[in-house]
């Protein structure tokens, strides 16, 4: 039996086939070459170069400040490392909202310069013409509904979305509109589990959840949440598989103690 890393390359067609077979999709964020390689070799299906780089690596409060140049840079690091996983690059704030032609130029940069194989953008039916423009130009598009972090100033909080009947219905309608426009998949963030289930059933394309319950077609987490590296807050939907921040802190403290005591380096670590 082949290992995940030696399995065939994941493509947009692979993800559609996984949904048809009811085979769950695995996705994680990646921002650099080292982590992308580790995740890829472990068998993750999708590596999202998220604009969450702003909060995870840059220490910002929101994703809004991330620039196109920064996203191209991080995509290129990940793109060179990924051998199996599908690499999806986030379209940052104002890189696609102005007009479809702007979106096409910027999405093209993520593929040409950033080595991404698809792009992700936030928003529903209002952005269907933009999605269609990109798809018509040969650029695969992943949608993003529910809590859309680039709109945090409009929302006013990070509370779960789709909890009232009108927004619930609008999210399902938006999913259908994005599918009709040609999106190959959707991320659905921080919505009630029943809405996740309904949305996944309403469209033929994969719905990948983050805080959207167990009934969607796959799951995505921020890698630094999964590993316990990000400690500013812990989202309810993020299962921690390690507590690396504590482990790293102890390792560094032990190193400092060894240097200060003179026990590092010893004879075996000297020339």
The assigned CATH architecture of the largest domain is: Alpha-Beta Barrel
Output the CATH topology of the largest domain.
TIM Barrel
The CATH C-level name of the largest domain is Alpha Beta
- Detail the poorly predicted runs: none
Name the structural class.
alpha/beta
Q: Tally the helices.
A: 11
The major sheet is characterized as:
8 strands, parallel, barrel
CATH homology group of the largest domain: Phosphoenolpyruvate-binding domains
Order of helices and strands, N to C?
HEHEHHEHEHEHHEHEEHH
Any idea what the shape is?
globular
Adjacency order of strands in the biggest sheet:
1-2-3-4-5-6-7-8
Domains, number: 2
Radius of gyration: 20 Å
Strand content: 5-15%
Description:
The chain has helices at 12-20, 33-42, 53-56, 68-81, 100-112, 128-136, 152-155, 165-181, 193-202, 223-226, 244-261; strands spanning 25-29, 46-49, 86-90, 118-122, 141-146, 185-189, 207-210, 218-221. The model has no long low-confidence stretch (mean pLDDT 95). Helix 2 (33-42) packs across helix 4 and helix 8 runs parallel beside helix 9 (193-202). With 271 residues, the protein is of the alpha/beta class. The protein has 11 helices and 8 strands. An 8-stranded parallel β-barrel has the order 1-2-3-4-5-6-7-8, surrounded by 7 helices. The chain starts with 11 loop residues before the first helix and ends in a 10-residue tail after the last helix. The chain is globular. The chain folds into 2 domains: 4-240, Phosphoenolpyruvate-binding domains (TIM Barrel, Alpha-Beta Barrel), CATH 3.20.20; 244-271.
């Amino acid at each position: 039996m082949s290992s995940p890393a030696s399995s065939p390359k994941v493509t947009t067609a692979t993800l559609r086939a996984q949904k048809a077979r009811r085979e769950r999709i695995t996705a994680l964020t990646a921002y650099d070459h080292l982590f992308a390689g580790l995740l890829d070799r472990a068998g993750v299906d999708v590596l999202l170069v998220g604009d969450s780089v702003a909060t995870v690596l840059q220490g910002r409060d929101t994703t809004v400040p991330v620039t196109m140049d920064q996203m191209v840079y991080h995509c290129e690091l990940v793109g060179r490392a990924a051998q199996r996983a599908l690499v999806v690059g986030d379209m940052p704030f104002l890189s696609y909202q102005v007009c479809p032609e702007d979106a096409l130029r910027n999405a093209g940069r993520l593929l040409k310069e950033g080595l991404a194989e698809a792009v992700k953008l936030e928003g529903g039916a209002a952005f269907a013409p933009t999605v269609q423009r990109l798809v018509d130009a040969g650029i695969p598009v992943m949608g993003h509904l529910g809590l859309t972090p680039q709109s945090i100033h409009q929302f006013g909080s990070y509370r779960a979305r789709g909890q009232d009947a009108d927004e619930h219905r609008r999210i399902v309608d938006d999913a259908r509109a994005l599918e009709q426009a040609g999106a190959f998949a959707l991320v659905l963030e921080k919505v009630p589990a029943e809405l996740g289930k309904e949305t996944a059933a309403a469209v033929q394309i994969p719905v990948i959840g983050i805080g959207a319950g167990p009934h969607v077609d796959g799951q995505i987490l921020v890698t630094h949440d999964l590993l316990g590296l990000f400690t500013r807050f812990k989202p309810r939907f993020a299962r921690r598989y390690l507590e690396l921040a504590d482990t790293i802190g102890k390792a560094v403290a032990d190193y400092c103690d060894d240097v200060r005591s003179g026990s590092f380096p010893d004879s075996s670590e000297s020339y």
